[in-house]
Structure formats: C-alpha cells, structure tokens
Amino acid sequence: MVTDPIADYLTRIRNAIMTNHRVVEIPASNMKKEITKILFEKGYILNYKFDDDPRPGKIKIALRYHPVTKLTAINKLERASRPGLRKYTGVKSLPRVLNGLGIAILSTSHGVITDKEARTKRIGGEVICYIS
Predict the structure, then answer these.
(1) Extended beta strands in 35-118, E state
(2) 91 strand-pairing partners
(3) Long-range contacts of range 1-8, CB-CB < 8 Å, 24 or more positions apart?
C-alpha cells in the first residue's frame, strides 16, 4: 500500500526519465489522470493512455525527449504538499516556478489546474507539485 500516491506517481516518472525509458506505466486514480492531462497540455509528455481495466486501471505515459540531444522535456519534478504537511496558498501568494517558465499544479475548488490558470480565475488551493 502506498501512503502518498502522488509522490509515487512523480517518482515513477522521475525514475523512468533517469533510465531513459520511453513509456512508464502507473496505477491510475482521478487525481493522477488530471495531472497527466495537464502535463500533456503543457507539452511535458508526448502522449498518454488510460487503461480502464475492471479493478486497478493503469496510466501509460510516453515521455518526451529531444530527437537529437535526447534531453527530456521534464527537468525537475518536486512534490510540494504531502500528507504530513499540506501546503495551501491564496491567490496573492501563488508560486512561480522558474519565474514563469515552469508550472505549479494546484488542487482547487475548480478542479486540478496550473498556477497560471489559478491566477486568471483568481482562486487559491493546495499546491500539489512543481514541474520545470
């Protein structure tokens, strides 16, 4: 049993990047699916597929690499809020990752969104992770 499924999700992606894997398979949950959709929309991953098997369900993520240099689009994945220490932020103190070049993913009353979307909607929430 995993006590922090989001940290496990980020660690599996981080480990796949370090070993230069093209595809990583992760157990699915609704929160992980929403984070995966954001990563795809922002161009950090190449593609994804949700396998909705009867019981566990899986997410297959194709990682994005540069064709010539073989560098990945994701440089850093960092968990912000964790089960032992939740981090909430208001609209005035939303984090900026790499001065706007990276993204912070937040869980809000409007769903799972990025920090830029939260600024435009003028809402705060729980900071899940930082990606650059």
Answers:
(1) 45-51, 58-63, 77-79, 88-89, 103-108, 111-114
(2) none
(3) 3/83, 4/79, 4/82, 4/83, 5/29, 5/31, 5/32, 6/31, 6/32, 6/35, 6/79, 6/128, 6/129, 7/79, 7/82
pLDDT tens across the length of the chain (132 residues): 678 999 999 999 999 999 999 999 999 999 999 999 999 999 999 999 998 777 778 999 999 999 899 899 999 999 999 999 999 999 999 999 999 899 999 999 999 999 999 999 999 999 999 999
Closest CA to 130 of 76, 58, 89: 76
Written as one letter, the residue type at 23 is V
Going by C-alpha positions, the residue among 73, 60, 54, 7 that lies closest to residue 33 is 60
Q: pTM score > 0.85 for this model?
A: yes
